[in-house]
Amino acid sequence: MCGIVGYLGPNQATPFLIEGLKKLEYRGYDSAGIAVFDGNVIRVEKSVGRLNALEQLVENDPPKGHVGIGHTRWATHGRPSDANSHPHTDCSGDFVVVHNGIIENYLHLKEQLIAKGHVFTSETDTEVVAHLVEEYYQGNFEETVKKVLAAIEGSYALVFFTKHEPDKIICTKQDNPLVIGLGDGENFIASDIPAIINHTRKTYILSDGEMAVVTKDSVWVTNRQGVPVSKKVFEVNWDAEAAEKGGYEHFMIKEIYEQPKAIRETTLGRLAKDDSGIIFDELKWTKDDVAAIKKIAIVACGTAYHAGIVGKYYIEQLARIPVEVEVASEFRYRSPLVDEKTLAVFISQSGETLDTIAALKEAKKLGARTLAITNVVGSSISREADQVIYTWAGPEIAVASTKAYTTQLIGVLMLAIYLASLRGTLAPERTAQLIQGLKQLPAQAHELLEDVEPIKTFAQQYGFNEDVFFIGRSLDYAVALEGALKLKEISYIHAEAYAAGELKHGTLALIIEGVPVIALATQRDVYEKMLSNIKEVKARDAVVIGLAMQGDEEIKKYVDHTIFIPAAEKYLAPILAVIPLQLLAYYAAVTRGADVDKPRNLAKSVTVE
Ligand code: F6R
Q: pTM score, two decimals?
């Protein structure tokens, strides 16, 4: 996720670009840049770091001109650096582009362009777009952009600008947002409404495949074939703060709703088109590399640790390699038994959690091969580990982790399938089933989010209880742990998760009349056992909310309420099952009037011991 802005009009572009980028910093904040046409050349200024670094850079000598574009970056291809910051230019500096998204076929295009003599100055996927424009330009900017779009694959919001036709900016989008703000004798372009709300409330929201040619006085929208599209003006009636949250009340709920996209981005380019396996260009392991791994240690904290527990089930069951999972603060101090035959996997959204970094250093010292699964390119953990699998969830602002968790599950599942393929422990048909399931997942997550009313009602009904229990078996138990953590951290309700079979060894004593028990029952191989556990708590008059797969009529006989998730492959069920639990926690916290995005005593990134 990155933030894009653009301006054409009678005013100086730079102040708007900087102000707009500030409003979009929640979309990315590892580097930023602007490009402004001064009547002669396009001046590009960019800087790694938060936006104030760029602001300071241009403070004394701001680029002057009435047309410009800007970008705040959340790194994907290429670490955060001045060179990798956007805008990107071609060899001549006459064409400039900013991009949000991922160009999947950039490596192939880059090789072709280098062969033709283009000189690249960054590690990004975006730079190929600038060179493609240079390569194709023959005096007609619109036709050039169309040709570029035909050559690239992936997801994008792209904004183009050239000194040869300086009265216009061209923009287009596919799977990433872009809005055009309609002013009086001036027009604005942005990834999101907060950037423009102080200037205009009249907007065009671009749809996938649309391309707009924007001048200061006009906006001409067509589809990619050049057929004009008549756009309706969308009047923004949110206040500035609500606009930053995309009209949602909190970042947490916005991020819950971003999960279909985050899942899609994390799998993008990694699922073989013919369903034959996982493509991890970042690993490129051989059979021998994998045969050398005798044990895997997954180390993480909090929600990321819970993703690790799911990962243990995935890797052990699919790849048949023994896995131990441990919280980083324990791992680092107990002389762990890891050596060069161990693959140590560190999961971290921020990549900056101090205990996880220390555990990673400890594992390296002991000779282990290290792999990070993280959401932040260029983070300490990504730099320290031997190799990295990035989750492409985009910046997570709410303290309670949601989209990072689901993408971590995708990360460990893809790793498990990848290892299994190299070890020959997974039949090709089974691999294909899993890959097909992964491809369907964004749509299923979307479907799940379409009707949240029943969950809201349960939260309102039970949101004032002091204790809630979560039970499940196998993968459901791992998800129950995350469900309980979510509820605790944002609603302050005491919540515990138990392996359902453990209840009778102690916890059943706490189950009395009216206590809510959330019973996860998505796993068919332990389903009958789970029903027995549900009967155990029902017999103590608990109120049971069953979480099951669509089509499961049986469960309704034993529970008070049911939440259904779309029917999915057993290994994919956790990724869907956690979503209603996130929603339950969210609505319980709202019901209790808690500060959802900033729960008491907690910080987003724990950089202390
Ligand atoms: C809970 C939560 C935390 C983090 C934990 C690790 O919602 O967000 O438990 O998961 O602090 O953080 P990262 O993943 O950044 O290492």
A: 0.80
Residue 350 CB–ligand 1 contact under 6 Å? yes
State the DSSP string of 205-238: EPPTTEEEEE-SS-EEEEETTS-B-PPPPEEP-S
Q: What pairs with residue 156 in β-bridges?
A: 101, 175
The per-residue DSSP string of 50-61 comes to SHHHHHHHHHSS
pLDDT on residue 609: 64
**Interatomic CA distance for residues 565 and 588, integer angstroms:** 20
**Strand residue runs (E) in 375-462:** 387-390
What is the pLDDT at residue 608?
67
> Going by C-beta distance under 8 Å and a sequence separation of 6 or more, which residues neighbour residue 60?
none
Q: What angle do CA 249, 252, 255 make, to 5 degrees?
A: 105
Does residue 353 line the site of ligand 1, with CB under 6 A?
A: yes
Q: Where are the beta strands (DSSP E) in 321-480?
A: 323-327, 342-348, 369-374, 387-390, 467-472
Beta partners for residue 32, in sequence order: 47, 72
The secondary structure of 181-195 as a DSSP string is EE-SS-EEEESSGGG
What pLDDT score does 607 carry? 67
Q: Is the CB of 487 under 6 A from ligand 1?
A: no
Largest pairwise CA distance in the chain: 81
- The CA distance from 100 to 4, in Å, is 7
User: Is position 2 annotated as part of the catalytic site?
Assistant: yes
Q: Is the pLDDT of residue 604 over 80?
A: no
87 prior amide bond cis, ω within 30: yes
Residue nearest to atom 3 of ligand 1 (CA): 302
Mean pLDDT on 99-114: 94
